[in-house]
From TrEMBL, chain A:
Keywords: Cell membrane, Membrane, Transmembrane, Transmembrane helix, Transport. This is Peptide/nickel transport system permease protein. The keyword tRNA processing does not apply. CDD domains: TM_PBP2. Signal peptide: none annotated. It is found in: Cell membrane. The chain crosses the membrane at residues 12-32, 100-121, 133-157, 177-195, 241-263, 283-306. It comes from Rhizobium herbae. Belongs to the binding-protein-dependent transport system permease family.
UniProtKB/TrEMBL annotation, chain B:
NCBIfam families: PRK10419.1, PRK11308.1. Transmembrane segments: none annotated. It holds the Pfam family ABC_tran. It comes from the Bacteria. Keywords: ATP-binding, Cell inner membrane, Cell membrane, Membrane, Nucleotide-binding, Translocase, Transport. This is Peptide/nickel transport system ATP-binding protein. It is found in: Cell inner membrane.
Amino acid sequence: MHRYRFVLSRPLQFLPVLFGISIITFILVRLIPGDPARVLLGTRSTPTAIARIRAQYGLDEPLWLQYFYFLENLGKGEMGKSILYKIDVLKLIATRIEPTLTLVLTSVALSILIAVPMAAIAARNNGRLADHVVRIVSTLGIGFPPFWLALMLIILFSVRLGVFPVSGYGETLGDKLAHLVLPSLTIALSLSAVLTRSLRAAMIVALKSDLATAARARGMPESIVFWRHVLPNSLVPTVNLLAVNIGWLIGGTVVVETVFAIPGMGQLLVRAIFSRDYMVVQGVAMVFACATVLVNFLADIVTVSLDPRVRL
Amino acid sequence: MSGPVLSIRDLTVKVPIDGETRTLIDAVSFDLARGEILGLVGESGSGKSMICRALVKLLPSPAIAITGGTVLLDGKDLATLSEDAMRAVRGAEIGMIFQNPTSHLDPVMRIGDQIAEGIRYHQGFDPREARAAAVEILGQVGFPDPARQYDNYPHEFSGGMRQRAMIAVALSCNPKILIADEPTTALDVTIQAQILRLLMDLRDKRGLSIILITHDLGIVAQTCDSIAVLRNGQLLEHGPKRRVLAEPQHAYTVSLLKSHPSMPEESGGTPLTPAALPIALQPLLEIDDLVVRFPAPGLGIFKKGKTEIAAVNGVSLRIMPGETVGIVGESGSGKSTLARAILGLTPLTSGHVSFAGSDLAQQRRQTLAKLRTEAAMVFQDPYNALNPRLTIGDMLAEVLKVQGNTPAARIPERVGELLDLVELDRAFATRRPRSLSGGQCQRAGIARALAVDPKLIIADECVAALDVTIQAQIIDLFRDLKTRMNLTLLFIAHDLAIVRNLCDRVVVMYRGEIVEEGRCDAVFANPRHAYTAALIGAIPDIDPDKPLPRGDLPPRSEPKAAPVVRGQPLISMQ
């Protein structure tokens, strides 16, 4: 169908975007004060040792040449070597990406599972008690900072009830998921609050819309009116809100990963920044940026599939 | 005919507001026979839609309730039926179609599925049977290729086809009664004639009874068997069509009939002849071979500049000072684009627009400055065209300040004068658009245009959204203003009767081109172009003996329409 034609043409537009991202991350990382060689050597740093390390990592070359090497390596699928871990950045990221990816996916799934029923209940009982409860809960969800929520969840579920592990990440799939329940719940509680508010508002409008009246006028029961007509017509704004939030979430798992000691990208990034591990910071930033571009692309596809009027 | 299908007795609907109870429908009684088309006539707020909503118990707010009376359908009293039992009535016994098919069809659901939905629910068909039944209904309401069009979405059709789809949805479960709430108000006059024909055909073939809600007495005269006139929730008059039209009993019915634009009052409405105006050799507005093209939507960045739609295609027009010119044509004919191009609101592709001697294409800045101080526009939807946060007084003062011709101290006085001019009470200066009626709001819109102290006013469909009696008042206002202030008026409308009443000269546009132009009386009495004739013929006349035409447009290759319009309208009927 030709309304999906943008799926083929859009990726070409990503090239200049990614090029821009690479320049920005490259320059920003080098604006961080401090010298990675000095950090690496720590107390053992002597001028000669520093010079040797700088030569080894190409840090003594002019900036434009460093950027050129960076691009050349990107073309070969390499992002250089980590100064701190002494292994290829891409390999390093590969070991860390899975926990973060799983965390984001479970958080988003959990958020949707919470938000859709909550919004539905609130919208269908607009102005009544259930609506007020949902609105208060979602305001609280937005209001509480994630680190505090995380600690409360740990105290309740891990320490008191002993249901889920306190922190860390498992080996087997079941074990990993058990470790991710509380972190995803932490994220989902605030994310679902944002989604609920947006979805509830759209649903209230759609419930009063002409198309809902028309469906009722042909004798459709309220449940069909709601799930078949109101819901599909109120999803689009929330899908885009979700996409923006996922983009933000990918880079924002740091707090949750730190509290729950999950060996993910967020943790890797923080450590890399503190140790001036240029290559890793660059690599992680590139991955985050690409993920954000990809998420928005997926959101566009979902939007088009939800609303046949949209042309991209 | 054996007994009425629907029998309404003393139906009363009330709503509590601020501790008081307001009566929306006041003890209305009437019968609807099998195969009868009943025209329910009245202005907005008269309760005509409310009655129909009450019949199917889909009242717009839970606070509004039926407080008395009976609605008998086959011996069942709908007024006391439970919600569950009502669901079996809605759709299956009483189908509804609405004024705006675009908002009443689900935009994200295939047309066919919306028809099949009711069939599956009410008749228990499986998906395949329901699809077959829906395809058949689509064929009946005039879809040329129903099997394929089943899978199209509403936005892929023109307004007329959407209304056909809406009718198909209403017919899907074989109802006995069809309630049509202003089904053609949003449509062009030729499409309106087609839809009305369709409704009458369906009545003949299926023995449907139809309640047709409308404000247009012409439609009633052409299609209905009987007429019910409503005002303030009360049924003023009810009877066979011919009797009500010929000998109206109630004064209100008489005034409704009078304000119908197809019956111009010869005394008040003599159009000014250009000769009676001060002699001016220089036209105020001169348009020469104007072309406005837009890039066709929906193309990627790789195909730039390939396809364009010519909204206005080679239009030439001269307007003398003091003249009143009507531009008529259907939606998509380019009349609004022309208006926007004249005011410099949309870029010209080629050709010239010169206003009071300066050329918009060549001296853009000077001409724009001139236009902004000497021309003004009145818009179709007065509520959307006025800033809801400003009071009417602030809005007018803003224009006066920007124009800079009125000393600050004199602005309040001038605002008052402007309100006097449009016959609004000076107290309206402190009110906001939301608290005004449609007609009052449009008067405020006209006052804003007058605040510029313009030579030229362009009114774009400025009465299309108003009730007939209000329309007549606004037209009178324009007539009065143009003589008093020596205004040049460019009046854009799809309603030919209004143009005929107001204008000296008429320009007929079709697919971006002028197909006919001439003095109003001459064009209406003797249209030379087949499209003009079709447009005029499609107006439902208030005389029931003049038959409603089919509303067919002439074929594309008309002798005088010679140059073929490049580019297609966004949505075509095929």
